[in-house]
Amino acid sequence: MAKHKVTMTINGKSVTAEVDSRLLLVHFIRENLDMTGTHIGCDTSSCGACTILIDGKSVKSCTYLTVRADGADITTIEGIAVEGTNHPLQKAFHDQHGLHCGFCTPGMIMRSIDLLKTNPNPTEKEIRWGISGNLCRCTGYNNIVKSVQQAAAEMAKEKEASV
Ligand code: FES
Ligand code: FES
Description:
alpha+beta, Ubiquitin-like (UB roll), DNA polymerase, domain 1, globular, binds FE2/S2 (inorganic) cluster, Carbon-monoxide dehydrogenase small subunit, metal ion binding
């Protein structure tokens, strides 16, 4: 199996490694880097549990080759809290009981970060559509929607205060 040298930034740190050409990014993150917050639910791009940000865009890392991420700037769930303070989405999922077992939660949050970046004030319908590629078998989605709404309001407040 051919090996390739890759270098990427993960949660602000530069990482260089030699990887097999067929190594999937989710396996690189979980197994090579020991960062297990990114989950694997299906391995077929169906559930969204493996969602991370690549150059700011949410991507399902179970169907993304590690070699393709060479040079990329990657963020995983482990990288979104700032100096010990949870991201507004992490806080909102906690406040609104947006999780039960928590298996889908890292992917839901990473997807929602991208959603709120492109649409900071989404309607309920837009939230439901925006997270439609991420499956949750526990919550019935209502509290996830409320979590995204709380985070959107919180982030808008933060933005206003910083101007
Ligand atoms: S594990 Fe990637 S979409 Fe399900
Ligand atoms: S909280 Fe269990 S799958 Fe979503």
